[in-house]
Amino acid sequence: MIIGVDHGYSAMKTAHICFPSGIVRYEHEPYTNRGVLRIEGKYYVCGTGRQPLLRTKTENEQYYLLTLAAIAQEIRFRKAPRKAEVVLAAGLPLTSFGREKKNFRDYLLERKNPVVFEYEGELYEIRVLDVRLFPQGYSVVAMHPEIIRDEPSVLLVDIGGWTIDIMRLDNGVPNAATCRSLEMGVIRCQDEILEQVRRDTGLSITEVQVERVLNGKSCSISEEAKNIILTYGRQYVKRIVSAIMEAGFDLQAVPAVFLGGGARLFERNVSPQDRLCRLITLPDVCLNAAGFERLAGQILKR
């Protein structure tokens, strides 16, 4: 089977599953079975917090282990056999795609094959037959071809945890000269909000609370803290729009598609007064992984 995996700093995503990208190693069996990966006699609790910033995702074994957890969860969602042959479909930012492609493919492929492990008490035996890599963000075209139909130029803005990856499509093809990666992801926004709430109210709220308020969901914190969160959310959106314009992209002239974890912020905080040419938001965080999967499927069919 083909399984798409989006390796984010904030969260791991497959076509149907999303969980935080943190991982903690335990020397002995942990207190819970939830999110527990057991491999080669070692225990790891997956889905706690987030990954620390790494220069590349191949620096240590963390993302490999999180990939196994993602595969197990996706197989369980599909009710598929736990002994399986898998083609992995994953992604990299277009700005570093050529530089990191070989190392990331080797990282995911050149391990013990098949790999045998337990996830949440169930035994898996997975043979990775191949790894297919695609540019992040561009995979959205595989899922939503209608967004570029009849549009000669479209800007794709993928708002991730740490970076915002920008590319322009001309006649449906990425223009490599236009690719940019800005270190202005949602994590930066959340960290600033946490610090400001602490300064103004003395409260130490959590990232999860911030995320809920930004997404318009209920949360039992003070109105003062909520107002700070919402104010900073609006300011963050304006900063992104300004940074995109400064990078040479005119959002008032070219339609823009915002996707990733921060896309919902644009739904709530962009108004007609911003005079954007055309705003399309795709807030489904699993969209990249689903796109990787579909692109890999099209290649394998050919």
Automatic annotation (TrEMBL):
<feature type="domain" description="Actin-like protein N-terminal">
    <location>
        <begin position="4"/>
        <end position="138"/>
    </location>
</feature>
<dbReference type="Pfam" id="PF21522">
    <property type="entry name" value="MreB-like_C"/>
</dbReference>
<protein>
    <submittedName>
        <fullName>ParM/StbA family protein</fullName>
    </submittedName>
</protein>
<feature type="domain" description="Actin homologue MreB-like C-terminal">
    <location>
        <begin position="156"/>
        <end position="270"/>
    </location>
</feature>
<dbReference type="InterPro" id="IPR043129">
    <property type="entry name" value="ATPase_NBD"/>
</dbReference>
<dbReference type="Pfam" id="PF17989">
    <property type="entry name" value="ALP_N"/>
</dbReference>
<dbReference type="InterPro" id="IPR040607">
    <property type="entry name" value="ALP_N"/>
</dbReference>
<dbReference type="InterPro" id="IPR049067">
    <property type="entry name" value="MreB-like_C"/>
</dbReference>
